[in-house]
Design a protein that fits this description.
The structure is a homodimer of 241-residue chains. Chain A folds into two domains: 63 residues, Arc Repressor Mutant, subunit A, CATH 1.10.10.10; 145 residues, GntR ligand-binding domain-like (Four Helix Bundle (Hemerythrin (Met), subunit A)). In chain A, 69% of the residues lie in helices and 4% in strands. Chain A has nine helices and three strands. Chain A binds a DNA duplex (30 and 30 nucleotides) through helix 3.
Chain lengths: 241, 241
DNA sequence: TCGATCGAAATTGTATGCAAAACTACCGCA
DNA sequence: TGCGGTAGTTTTGCATACAATTTCGATCGA
Protein backbone atom coordinates (compact mmCIF):
# COMPACT_ATOMS: atom_id res chain seq x y z
CA UNK A 1 0.00 0.00 0.00
CA UNK A 2 2.86 2.36 0.73
CA UNK A 3 3.81 2.96 -2.86
CA UNK A 4 5.02 6.45 -2.17
CA UNK A 5 7.64 5.71 0.40
CA UNK A 6 10.56 5.56 -1.96
CA UNK A 7 10.03 8.68 -3.96
CA UNK A 8 10.19 10.96 -1.01
CA UNK A 9 12.92 13.24 -2.23
CA UNK A 10 12.78 16.24 0.00
CA UNK A 11 9.93 18.10 1.55
CA UNK A 12 6.81 16.18 2.33
CA UNK A 13 3.84 16.92 0.12
CA UNK A 14 1.93 18.73 2.79
CA UNK A 15 2.16 18.98 6.52
CA UNK A 16 2.90 15.33 7.02
CA UNK A 17 5.58 14.47 9.52
CA UNK A 18 6.46 17.16 11.97
CA UNK A 19 10.07 16.16 12.29
CA UNK A 20 12.24 15.37 9.32
CA UNK A 21 14.74 17.86 8.13
CA UNK A 22 14.13 18.47 11.80
CA UNK A 23 13.09 22.02 12.37
CA UNK A 24 13.31 23.70 9.04
CA UNK A 25 10.92 21.50 7.15
CA UNK A 26 8.53 21.66 10.06
CA UNK A 27 8.60 25.44 9.99
CA UNK A 28 8.24 25.43 6.25
CA UNK A 29 5.21 23.17 6.44
CA UNK A 30 3.59 25.22 9.16
CA UNK A 31 3.91 28.42 7.19
CA UNK A 32 2.71 26.70 4.03
CA UNK A 33 -0.28 25.33 5.88
CA UNK A 34 -1.08 28.75 7.32
CA UNK A 35 -1.15 30.17 3.82
CA UNK A 36 -3.26 27.32 2.48
CA UNK A 37 -5.70 27.68 5.34
CA UNK A 38 -6.27 31.26 4.39
CA UNK A 39 -4.64 32.69 7.48
CA UNK A 40 -2.50 34.70 5.13
CA UNK A 41 -4.42 35.48 1.95
CA UNK A 42 -2.77 36.33 -1.35
CA UNK A 43 -0.95 39.62 -1.23
CA UNK A 44 -0.71 39.61 2.56
CA UNK A 45 2.47 40.78 4.16
CA UNK A 46 4.37 38.16 6.14
CA UNK A 47 5.98 39.57 9.26
CA UNK A 48 8.86 37.42 10.40
CA UNK A 49 8.38 37.87 14.09
CA UNK A 50 4.73 36.89 13.73
CA UNK A 51 5.66 33.70 11.92
CA UNK A 52 8.19 32.96 14.63
CA UNK A 53 5.39 33.02 17.16
CA UNK A 54 3.27 30.85 14.89
CA UNK A 55 5.94 28.24 14.33
CA UNK A 56 7.82 28.53 17.60
CA UNK A 57 11.10 28.81 15.76
CA UNK A 58 13.69 31.52 15.86
CA UNK A 59 14.23 33.91 13.02
CA UNK A 60 17.27 32.14 11.54
CA UNK A 61 15.31 28.96 10.97
CA UNK A 62 12.24 30.81 9.85
CA UNK A 63 14.16 32.78 7.28
CA UNK A 64 15.68 29.62 5.85
CA UNK A 65 12.20 28.19 5.52
CA UNK A 66 11.03 31.37 3.82
CA UNK A 67 13.81 31.13 1.27
CA UNK A 68 12.58 27.67 0.40
CA UNK A 69 9.00 28.86 0.02
CA UNK A 70 10.22 31.77 -2.05
CA UNK A 71 11.95 29.50 -4.53
CA UNK A 72 8.75 27.52 -4.94
CA UNK A 73 6.96 30.76 -5.74
CA UNK A 74 4.39 30.67 -2.97
CA UNK A 75 5.77 33.84 -1.44
CA UNK A 76 7.71 36.75 -2.88
CA UNK A 77 10.43 38.94 -1.48
CA UNK A 78 11.07 42.60 -2.01
CA UNK A 79 14.36 44.06 -0.94
CA UNK A 80 14.29 45.54 2.54
CA UNK A 81 10.56 45.02 2.60
CA UNK A 82 10.27 41.35 3.48
CA UNK A 83 7.95 38.72 2.15
CA UNK A 84 4.35 38.61 1.05
CA UNK A 85 2.09 35.84 -0.24
CA UNK A 86 2.34 35.77 -4.02
CA UNK A 87 -0.49 37.29 -5.97
CA UNK A 88 -1.59 35.08 -8.82
CA UNK A 89 -2.95 36.86 -11.83
CA UNK A 90 -5.18 34.96 -14.24
CA UNK A 91 -2.30 35.09 -16.65
CA UNK A 92 0.05 33.43 -14.19
CA UNK A 93 -2.51 30.74 -13.44
CA UNK A 94 -2.77 30.08 -17.13
CA UNK A 95 0.99 29.78 -17.38
CA UNK A 96 1.17 27.49 -14.39
CA UNK A 97 -1.37 25.17 -15.91
CA UNK A 98 0.45 25.20 -19.21
CA UNK A 99 3.59 24.08 -17.43
CA UNK A 100 1.81 21.62 -15.23
CA UNK A 101 0.11 20.09 -18.23
CA UNK A 102 3.44 19.60 -19.93
CA UNK A 103 5.00 17.93 -16.92
CA UNK A 104 2.11 15.73 -15.93
CA UNK A 105 1.56 14.70 -19.51
CA UNK A 106 5.20 13.75 -19.81
CA UNK A 107 4.85 11.70 -16.65
CA UNK A 108 1.77 9.98 -18.04
CA UNK A 109 3.48 9.17 -21.32
CA UNK A 110 6.47 7.71 -19.55
CA UNK A 111 4.27 5.81 -17.12
CA UNK A 112 2.50 4.16 -20.03
CA UNK A 113 5.84 2.87 -21.25
CA UNK A 114 7.71 2.14 -18.07
CA UNK A 115 5.40 1.27 -15.21
CA UNK A 116 5.45 -2.25 -13.88
CA UNK A 117 2.37 -4.45 -14.04
CA UNK A 118 2.04 -4.13 -10.29
CA UNK A 119 1.96 -0.37 -10.61
CA UNK A 120 -0.66 -0.63 -13.33
CA UNK A 121 -2.75 -2.69 -10.98
CA UNK A 122 -2.32 -0.14 -8.18
CA UNK A 123 -3.37 2.60 -10.54
CA UNK A 124 -6.56 0.75 -11.41
CA UNK A 125 -7.22 0.24 -7.72
CA UNK A 126 -6.75 3.92 -6.95
CA UNK A 127 -9.18 4.86 -9.68
CA UNK A 128 -11.73 2.53 -8.09
CA UNK A 129 -11.08 4.12 -4.73
CA UNK A 130 -11.59 7.49 -6.30
CA UNK A 131 -14.91 6.44 -7.76
CA UNK A 132 -15.99 5.26 -4.34
CA UNK A 133 -14.97 8.53 -2.72
CA UNK A 134 -16.88 10.59 -5.20
CA UNK A 135 -19.92 8.33 -4.89
CA UNK A 136 -19.87 8.70 -1.12
CA UNK A 137 -19.05 12.39 -1.28
CA UNK A 138 -16.05 12.18 1.01
CA UNK A 139 -14.01 15.09 -0.32
CA UNK A 140 -11.13 14.85 2.11
CA UNK A 141 -10.63 11.22 1.25
CA UNK A 142 -11.00 12.00 -2.42
CA UNK A 143 -8.25 14.53 -2.25
CA UNK A 144 -6.01 12.02 -0.53
CA UNK A 145 -6.65 9.32 -3.08
CA UNK A 146 -6.06 11.76 -5.89
CA UNK A 147 -2.74 12.66 -4.37
CA UNK A 148 -1.84 8.99 -4.16
CA UNK A 149 -2.82 8.52 -7.78
CA UNK A 150 -0.42 11.21 -8.84
CA UNK A 151 2.30 9.99 -6.54
CA UNK A 152 2.03 6.65 -8.26
CA UNK A 153 2.15 8.32 -11.65
CA UNK A 154 5.34 10.15 -10.71
CA UNK A 155 7.05 7.11 -9.27
CA UNK A 156 5.95 4.84 -12.10
CA UNK A 157 7.27 7.17 -14.79
CA UNK A 158 10.81 6.49 -13.53
CA UNK A 159 11.84 10.10 -13.61
CA UNK A 160 12.24 11.82 -10.28
CA UNK A 161 13.16 15.12 -11.82
CA UNK A 162 9.65 15.61 -13.11
CA UNK A 163 8.28 15.40 -9.63
CA UNK A 164 10.97 17.67 -8.39
CA UNK A 165 10.15 20.30 -10.96
CA UNK A 166 6.46 20.04 -10.17
CA UNK A 167 7.26 20.39 -6.49
CA UNK A 168 8.26 23.92 -7.25
CA UNK A 169 4.88 24.85 -8.61
CA UNK A 170 2.78 22.27 -6.80
CA UNK A 171 2.29 24.59 -3.85
CA UNK A 172 0.56 27.11 -5.99
CA UNK A 173 -1.40 24.39 -7.74
CA UNK A 174 -2.67 23.05 -4.44
CA UNK A 175 -3.42 26.56 -3.33
CA UNK A 176 -5.60 27.03 -6.37
CA UNK A 177 -7.24 23.67 -6.02
CA UNK A 178 -8.12 24.32 -2.41
CA UNK A 179 -9.64 27.69 -3.11
CA UNK A 180 -11.44 27.13 -6.35
CA UNK A 181 -11.98 23.48 -7.23
CA UNK A 182 -15.02 23.04 -5.05
CA UNK A 183 -17.28 23.08 -8.10
CA UNK A 184 -19.51 20.01 -7.57
CA UNK A 185 -20.27 19.55 -11.24
CA UNK A 186 -16.59 19.54 -12.07
CA UNK A 187 -15.94 16.42 -10.00
CA UNK A 188 -17.95 14.16 -12.24
CA UNK A 189 -16.25 15.44 -15.37
CA UNK A 190 -12.89 15.20 -13.73
CA UNK A 191 -13.56 11.60 -12.80
CA UNK A 192 -14.54 10.79 -16.35
CA UNK A 193 -11.31 12.34 -17.62
CA UNK A 194 -9.28 10.33 -15.16
CA UNK A 195 -11.07 7.18 -16.26
CA UNK A 196 -9.93 7.81 -19.79
CA UNK A 197 -6.40 8.57 -18.67
CA UNK A 198 -6.26 5.43 -16.60
CA UNK A 199 -7.60 3.30 -19.43
CA UNK A 200 -4.94 4.67 -21.75
CA UNK A 201 -2.22 4.05 -19.18
CA UNK A 202 -3.36 0.50 -18.54
CA UNK A 203 -3.32 -0.13 -22.27
CA UNK A 204 0.20 1.37 -22.34
CA UNK A 205 -1.01 3.63 -25.11
CA UNK A 206 1.30 6.61 -24.98
CA UNK A 207 -0.55 8.73 -27.47
CA UNK A 208 -3.92 8.20 -25.85
CA UNK A 209 -2.41 8.88 -22.46
CA UNK A 210 -0.99 12.11 -23.76
CA UNK A 211 -4.30 13.18 -25.17
CA UNK A 212 -6.21 12.25 -22.03
CA UNK A 213 -3.77 14.05 -19.77
CA UNK A 214 -3.90 17.21 -21.83
CA UNK A 215 -7.68 17.10 -21.94
CA UNK A 216 -7.85 16.66 -18.19
CA UNK A 217 -5.62 19.57 -17.42
CA UNK A 218 -7.14 21.86 -19.99
CA UNK A 219 -10.53 21.30 -18.41
CA UNK A 220 -9.15 21.85 -14.93
CA UNK A 221 -7.47 25.02 -16.06
CA UNK A 222 -10.64 26.40 -17.56
CA UNK A 223 -12.59 25.66 -14.41
CA UNK A 224 -10.07 27.41 -12.24
CA UNK A 225 -9.82 30.41 -14.52
CA UNK A 226 -13.58 30.67 -14.72
CA UNK A 227 -13.73 30.56 -10.94
CA UNK A 228 -11.17 33.31 -10.73
CA UNK A 229 -13.07 35.56 -13.08
CA UNK A 230 -16.32 35.00 -11.18
CA UNK A 231 -14.52 35.81 -7.99
CA UNK A 232 -13.00 38.93 -9.46
CA UNK A 233 -16.42 40.18 -10.47
CA UNK A 234 -17.84 39.42 -7.05
CA UNK A 235 -15.16 41.12 -5.05
CA UNK A 236 -15.25 44.87 -4.82
CA UNK A 237 -11.76 45.66 -5.91
CA UNK A 238 -9.26 43.58 -7.81
CA UNK A 239 -6.69 42.47 -5.33
CA UNK A 240 -5.64 40.24 -8.18
CA UNK A 241 -3.69 42.47 -10.46
CA UNK B 1 19.25 44.42 -27.69
CA UNK B 2 18.36 43.90 -24.06
CA UNK B 3 15.57 41.45 -24.71
CA UNK B 4 16.06 39.70 -21.42
CA UNK B 5 15.50 42.60 -19.10
CA UNK B 6 11.83 41.89 -18.45
CA UNK B 7 11.93 38.22 -17.72
CA UNK B 8 14.24 38.56 -14.83
CA UNK B 9 12.25 36.75 -12.20
CA UNK B 10 14.68 35.99 -9.44
CA UNK B 11 18.26 34.97 -9.47
CA UNK B 12 20.42 36.06 -12.34
CA UNK B 13 21.51 33.36 -14.71
CA UNK B 14 25.06 33.35 -13.60
CA UNK B 15 27.23 35.67 -11.64
CA UNK B 16 25.86 38.78 -13.26
CA UNK B 17 25.33 41.73 -10.98
CA UNK B 18 27.01 41.52 -7.66
CA UNK B 19 24.31 43.42 -5.86
CA UNK B 20 20.64 42.61 -6.30
CA UNK B 21 18.84 40.75 -3.63
CA UNK B 22 21.78 42.49 -2.06
CA UNK B 23 23.89 40.00 -0.24
CA UNK B 24 22.09 36.71 -0.51
CA UNK B 25 22.01 36.43 -4.26
CA UNK B 26 25.63 37.52 -4.38
CA UNK B 27 26.59 34.78 -1.96
CA UNK B 28 24.50 32.29 -3.87
CA UNK B 29 26.18 33.23 -7.14
CA UNK B 30 29.64 33.05 -5.64
CA UNK B 31 29.07 29.56 -4.29
CA UNK B 32 27.49 28.47 -7.54
CA UNK B 33 30.42 29.81 -9.48
CA UNK B 34 32.85 28.06 -7.16
CA UNK B 35 31.11 24.77 -7.87
CA UNK B 36 31.00 25.41 -11.61
CA UNK B 37 34.66 26.31 -11.64
CA UNK B 38 35.48 22.95 -10.15
CA UNK B 39 36.66 24.34 -6.85
CA UNK B 40 34.19 21.97 -5.27
CA UNK B 41 33.81 18.87 -7.41
CA UNK B 42 30.79 16.60 -7.30
CA UNK B 43 30.47 14.81 -4.00
CA UNK B 44 32.67 17.29 -2.20
CA UNK B 45 31.71 18.33 1.28
CA UNK B 46 30.83 22.00 1.71
CA UNK B 47 32.03 23.40 5.01
CA UNK B 48 30.06 26.46 5.98
CA UNK B 49 32.86 28.37 7.60
CA UNK B 50 35.01 27.86 4.52
CA UNK B 51 32.28 29.25 2.27
CA UNK B 52 31.93 32.20 4.61
CA UNK B 53 35.57 33.02 4.01
CA UNK B 54 35.08 32.56 0.28
CA UNK B 55 32.05 34.82 0.07
CA UNK B 56 32.82 37.19 2.89
CA UNK B 57 29.36 36.70 4.31
CA UNK B 58 28.29 35.51 7.72
CA UNK B 59 26.79 32.10 8.31
CA UNK B 60 23.18 33.25 8.42
CA UNK B 61 23.30 34.64 4.93
CA UNK B 62 25.38 31.78 3.68
CA UNK B 63 22.93 29.24 4.98
CA UNK B 64 20.04 31.01 3.30
CA UNK B 65 21.94 30.89 0.05
CA UNK B 66 22.63 27.20 0.57
CA UNK B 67 18.94 26.51 1.05
CA UNK B 68 18.30 28.11 -2.29
CA UNK B 69 21.00 26.05 -3.98
CA UNK B 70 19.65 22.95 -2.30
CA UNK B 71 16.18 23.48 -3.73
CA UNK B 72 17.69 23.79 -7.19
CA UNK B 73 19.41 20.46 -6.64
CA UNK B 74 22.97 21.60 -7.07
CA UNK B 75 23.83 20.66 -3.51
CA UNK B 76 22.35 18.15 -1.09
CA UNK B 77 21.89 18.22 2.64
CA UNK B 78 22.14 15.42 5.13
CA UNK B 79 20.80 16.01 8.60
CA UNK B 80 23.48 17.15 11.04
CA UNK B 81 26.05 16.49 8.41
CA UNK B 82 25.79 19.58 6.28
CA UNK B 83 25.89 20.01 2.54
CA UNK B 84 27.79 18.42 -0.30
CA UNK B 85 27.83 18.97 -4.04
CA UNK B 86 25.25 16.68 -5.61
CA UNK B 87 26.50 13.58 -7.30
CA UNK B 88 24.92 13.05 -10.68
CA UNK B 89 24.51 9.49 -11.75
CA UNK B 90 24.10 8.72 -15.44
CA UNK B 91 20.51 7.89 -14.64
CA UNK B 92 19.89 11.29 -13.12
CA UNK B 93 21.48 13.00 -16.08
CA UNK B 94 19.17 11.07 -18.33
CA UNK B 95 16.18 12.15 -16.27
CA UNK B 96 17.31 15.75 -16.26
CA UNK B 97 17.57 15.76 -20.02
CA UNK B 98 14.17 14.15 -20.33
CA UNK B 99 12.70 16.93 -18.27
CA UNK B 100 14.70 19.63 -19.95
CA UNK B 101 13.64 18.38 -23.35
CA UNK B 102 10.03 18.56 -22.34
CA UNK B 103 10.31 22.11 -21.05
CA UNK B 104 12.45 23.54 -23.81
CA UNK B 105 10.32 21.87 -26.42
CA UNK B 106 7.22 23.37 -24.89
CA UNK B 107 8.89 26.75 -24.97
CA UNK B 108 9.79 26.28 -28.61
CA UNK B 109 6.27 25.26 -29.55
CA UNK B 110 4.78 28.25 -27.80
CA UNK B 111 7.40 30.56 -29.29
CA UNK B 112 6.40 29.42 -32.75
CA UNK B 113 2.85 30.49 -32.03
CA UNK B 114 3.28 33.55 -29.86
CA UNK B 115 6.52 35.35 -30.57
CA UNK B 116 6.35 38.76 -32.19
CA UNK B 117 7.89 39.40 -35.57
CA UNK B 118 10.55 41.46 -33.88
CA UNK B 119 11.45 38.51 -31.69
CA UNK B 120 11.59 36.27 -34.73
CA UNK B 121 14.03 38.67 -36.28
CA UNK B 122 16.17 38.73 -33.15
CA UNK B 123 16.21 34.96 -33.14
CA UNK B 124 17.47 34.87 -36.70
CA UNK B 125 20.12 37.42 -35.78
CA UNK B 126 21.29 35.37 -32.81
CA UNK B 127 21.61 32.30 -34.97
CA UNK B 128 23.81 34.29 -37.33
CA UNK B 129 25.89 35.46 -34.39
CA UNK B 130 26.21 31.89 -33.29
CA UNK B 131 27.42 30.81 -36.70
CA UNK B 132 30.02 33.54 -36.57
CA UNK B 133 31.20 32.48 -33.12
CA UNK B 134 31.60 28.91 -34.16
CA UNK B 135 33.37 29.89 -37.33
CA UNK B 136 35.81 32.03 -35.38
CA UNK B 137 36.11 29.48 -32.59
CA UNK B 138 35.30 31.90 -29.80
CA UNK B 139 33.80 29.52 -27.28
CA UNK B 140 33.14 32.03 -24.52
CA UNK B 141 31.25 34.25 -26.90
CA UNK B 142 29.44 31.23 -28.30
CA UNK B 143 28.21 30.29 -24.89
CA UNK B 144 26.98 33.79 -24.29
CA UNK B 145 25.12 33.94 -27.57
CA UNK B 146 23.59 30.58 -26.92
CA UNK B 147 22.36 31.78 -23.58
CA UNK B 148 20.84 34.81 -25.25
CA UNK B 149 19.16 32.58 -27.79
CA UNK B 150 17.48 30.60 -25.05
CA UNK B 151 16.59 33.70 -23.08
CA UNK B 152 14.80 34.95 -26.14
CA UNK B 153 13.05 31.63 -26.54
CA UNK B 154 11.83 31.76 -22.97
CA UNK B 155 10.64 35.33 -23.13
CA UNK B 156 9.05 34.89 -26.53
CA UNK B 157 7.04 31.87 -25.48
CA UNK B 158 5.06 34.10 -23.12
CA UNK B 159 5.26 31.73 -20.21
CA UNK B 160 7.51 32.72 -17.36
CA UNK B 161 6.81 29.60 -15.39
CA UNK B 162 8.69 27.48 -17.87
CA UNK B 163 11.80 29.46 -17.30
CA UNK B 164 11.24 29.35 -13.59
CA UNK B 165 10.95 25.57 -13.63
CA UNK B 166 14.05 25.26 -15.75
CA UNK B 167 15.89 27.56 -13.39
CA UNK B 168 15.65 24.80 -10.84
CA UNK B 169 17.49 22.34 -13.00
CA UNK B 170 19.46 24.75 -15.13
CA UNK B 171 22.28 24.83 -12.63
CA UNK B 172 22.92 21.19 -13.09
CA UNK B 173 22.50 21.50 -16.84
CA UNK B 174 25.11 24.23 -17.00
CA UNK B 175 27.31 22.21 -14.76
CA UNK B 176 27.16 19.34 -17.20
CA UNK B 177 27.64 21.56 -20.20
CA UNK B 178 30.70 23.14 -18.70
CA UNK B 179 32.33 19.87 -17.83
CA UNK B 180 31.48 17.70 -20.76
CA UNK B 181 30.28 19.60 -23.82
CA UNK B 182 33.71 20.52 -25.01
CA UNK B 183 33.51 17.92 -27.76
CA UNK B 184 34.63 19.86 -30.86
CA UNK B 185 32.78 17.66 -33.31
CA UNK B 186 29.57 18.15 -31.39
CA UNK B 187 29.51 21.89 -32.02
CA UNK B 188 28.94 21.53 -35.74
CA UNK B 189 26.11 19.11 -35.29
CA UNK B 190 24.61 21.24 -32.56
CA UNK B 191 24.70 24.24 -34.84
CA UNK B 192 22.98 22.30 -37.58
CA UNK B 193 20.24 21.26 -35.15
CA UNK B 194 19.75 24.82 -34.04
CA UNK B 195 19.50 25.93 -37.66
CA UNK B 196 16.62 23.53 -38.14
CA UNK B 197 14.96 24.65 -34.93
CA UNK B 198 15.30 28.28 -35.89
CA UNK B 199 13.92 27.67 -39.35
CA UNK B 200 10.90 25.92 -37.86
CA UNK B 201 10.35 28.74 -35.39
CA UNK B 202 10.61 31.41 -38.06
CA UNK B 203 8.05 29.50 -40.11
CA UNK B 204 5.88 29.35 -37.00
CA UNK B 205 5.66 25.62 -37.57
CA UNK B 206 4.86 24.19 -34.16
CA UNK B 207 5.25 20.55 -35.11
CA UNK B 208 8.56 21.04 -36.83
CA UNK B 209 9.77 23.12 -33.93
CA UNK B 210 8.81 20.34 -31.56
CA UNK B 211 10.63 17.77 -33.63
CA UNK B 212 13.74 19.91 -33.99
CA UNK B 213 13.88 20.72 -30.29
CA UNK B 214 13.54 17.09 -29.31
CA UNK B 215 16.19 16.06 -31.80
CA UNK B 216 18.56 18.72 -30.50
CA UNK B 217 18.20 17.71 -26.89
CA UNK B 218 18.33 14.01 -27.56
CA UNK B 219 21.63 14.49 -29.33
CA UNK B 220 22.96 16.68 -26.54
CA UNK B 221 21.89 14.13 -23.99
CA UNK B 222 23.64 11.31 -25.78
CA UNK B 223 26.83 13.32 -26.06
CA UNK B 224 26.84 14.12 -22.38
CA UNK B 225 26.05 10.57 -21.35
CA UNK B 226 28.74 9.24 -23.64
CA UNK B 227 31.17 11.67 -22.10
CA UNK B 228 30.21 10.52 -18.65
CA UNK B 229 30.75 6.88 -19.49
CA UNK B 230 34.13 7.61 -21.05
CA UNK B 231 35.05 9.56 -17.96
CA UNK B 232 33.92 6.74 -15.71
CA UNK B 233 36.13 4.30 -17.55
CA UNK B 234 39.10 6.63 -17.43
CA UNK B 235 38.90 7.43 -13.77
CA UNK B 236 40.18 4.86 -11.37
CA UNK B 237 37.20 4.55 -9.13
CA UNK B 238 33.62 5.57 -9.70
CA UNK B 239 33.02 8.66 -7.67
CA UNK B 240 29.83 8.69 -9.65
CA UNK B 241 27.65 6.14 -7.98
C1' DT C 1 48.21 -5.27 14.34
C1' DC C 2 43.69 -4.46 14.93
C1' DG C 3 39.73 -2.79 17.17
C1' DA C 4 37.29 -0.34 20.81
C1' DT C 5 36.81 3.64 23.68
C1' DC C 6 37.11 8.07 25.08
C1' DG C 7 37.94 12.96 24.55
C1' DA C 8 39.12 17.11 22.08
C1' DA C 9 38.39 19.72 17.90
C1' DA C 10 35.53 20.82 14.24
C1' DT C 11 31.09 21.50 12.32
C1' DT C 12 26.33 22.00 12.18
C1' DG C 13 21.87 23.51 14.48
C1' DT C 14 19.61 27.09 16.89
C1' DA C 15 19.00 31.45 19.31
C1' DT C 16 19.95 36.13 20.21
C1' DG C 17 21.72 40.89 19.32
C1' DC C 18 22.71 45.05 16.82
C1' DA C 19 22.40 48.35 12.91
C1' DA C 20 19.96 50.13 9.00
C1' DA C 21 15.94 50.69 6.42
C1' DA C 22 10.96 51.37 6.19
C1' DC C 23 6.71 52.57 8.11
C1' DT C 24 3.66 55.49 11.30
C1' DA C 25 1.98 59.15 13.52
C1' DC C 26 2.33 63.49 14.95
C1' DC C 27 3.29 68.30 14.40
C1' DG C 28 3.99 72.71 12.22
C1' DC C 29 3.05 75.55 8.50
C1' DA C 30 1.16 77.55 4.32
C1' DT D 1 -7.53 71.63 5.03
C1' DG D 2 -3.62 69.73 2.97
C1' DC D 3 1.19 69.03 2.72
C1' DG D 4 5.90 68.15 4.17
C1' DG D 5 9.03 67.04 7.51
C1' DT D 6 10.54 64.61 11.53
C1' DA D 7 10.85 61.61 15.62
C1' DG D 8 9.80 57.10 17.19
C1' DT D 9 8.49 52.51 16.38
C1' DT D 10 8.56 48.46 13.73
C1' DT D 11 10.74 45.34 10.75
C1' DT D 12 14.21 43.59 8.03
C1' DG D 13 19.34 42.64 7.03
C1' DC D 14 23.24 40.93 8.82
C1' DA D 15 26.41 39.22 12.38
C1' DT D 16 27.64 36.86 16.42
C1' DA D 17 27.15 33.55 20.30
C1' DC D 18 25.90 29.28 22.40
C1' DA D 19 24.41 24.30 22.28
C1' DA D 20 24.35 19.78 20.17
C1' DT D 21 26.25 16.61 17.12
C1' DT D 22 29.69 14.57 14.46
C1' DT D 23 34.46 13.67 13.22
C1' DC D 24 39.02 12.49 14.12
C1' DG D 25 42.81 10.92 16.58
C1' DA D 26 45.14 9.10 20.42
C1' DT D 27 45.35 5.71 23.86
C1' DC D 28 44.63 1.25 25.69
C1' DG D 29 43.83 -3.64 25.63
C1' DA D 30 43.47 -8.09 23.39
Amino acid sequence: MKATSDIDSGKPTHAVEQQRGSLRSHVENTVRAAIFDGLYPAGQKLVERELCDLTGASRSILREALVSLEVSGLIERESNRGYRVSLLSARQVYEIFELRASLETLAAELFAERASDAEMQQLAQLLEDLEACIASGDLTQMRLVKERYYELLFSGCRNREIRRALENIIDRVHYLRGRLMSDPDRRQKSLEEMRRLTAALLARDRLQARAASIAHLTAARDTVLEGMLRKDETETAGLMQ
